Amino acid sequence: MPSRPLLKFTEKGIYCAVAKVYLDPWKPVDKAIITHGHADHSRWGHKQYITHHTNIPIIKHRLGDINVTGKAYGETFVINNVTFSFHPAGHIIGSSQIRVEHKGEIWVFTGDYKVENDGISIPFEPIKCHTFITECTFGLPAFKWASQKDVFNDINNWWAENKSEGKTSILFGYSLGKAQRLLKYLNPEIGKIYTHGAIENMTNVIRPMVSFPETTLVTRETKKEDFIGNIVIAPPSAHGSTWIRKMVPYVTASASGWMTFRGARRRRAIDKGFVLSDHCDWDGLLTAINETGATKIITTHGYTEIFSKYLRELGYDARTEKTQYEGELAEIDTKKESEVLE
């Protein structure tokens, strides 16, 4: 094994010195390998981007005319004798893990991931490796997800109940990933689905790849009476804004892993919380790690210290590293949502 680590955490991002390439760097670099389209992992300013081909239209929508190369899942590409490949992360559409191999040593960087099949993204694929870099956004035993089917039954029942009371349902979710997952499983037989501009624009980028129900963009011309009994999908930044005033009377809800905690719902003045995350829960993290066969684990963004301590108790060589990734924290950062996606 080489004396220096194959991947190193630097002030610009995760760096492979042998290949002179960065993985999801948070500062501008010459060459960046990108796991997925969320703003904390795919940033503007790199000279060259390499990503999964389905992620290209997503990051181009966000970043503009960039120099980007697309790869298929499992397709290997070599940079300075280091072999790279993308593998499904199951986080959102186009999301990938990055496998890095050099002189028999294999590292896997997950980016963000989940192990439940959402029916939109390609399901998570465990990759055998020596060192596994894992997020732990929800790395506490308190986080345990119900099945997606059960959650969407609850969401559709909530919408139907609000309709019977003559109210508009407003459901908040991050504009890339969460919003499309909500749209995919809403029951259009209940009523009409309205969307905020940030969500409508991003969904239109993804529509050629995924079948969604019909949606209607909210505009200035949309009348107050049009909303009654229907549902509006909006980013968290819309909550409390003048944009939703004409939707009165309405009931609000948020779909996020953070809705596990009642306090999170109260702090955000949300009427209803649905626990739905595009990240692993506690059991999902442990399952994914076990299936890699890795002995060395590096934890990033989330409950890193608690989770890595537990992994060490299980016998893993586990440590933490600081990054500028936020996981699902981006869903509750309304300032960022507004700046990046609207």
TrEMBL record:
What InterPro entries does the record tag this protein with? MBL, RibonucZ/Hydroxyglut_hydro, Xnuc_lig_assoc
What keywords were assigned to this record?
A: Exonuclease, Hydrolase, Ligase, Nuclease
Protein's UniProt keywords contain Transmembrane helix: no
Domain of life (superkingdom): Bacteria
Q: Does the keyword Chloroplast apply?
A: no
Molecular function, one GO term = ligase activity
SUPFAM superfamilies documented for this protein: Metallo-hydrolase/oxidoreductase
Q: What is this protein called?
A: Ligase-associated DNA damage response exonuclease
The species this protein was found in: Aquimarina litoralis
The organism's taxonomic lineage, starting at the top: Bacteria, Pseudomonadati, Bacteroidota, Flavobacteriia, Flavobacteriales
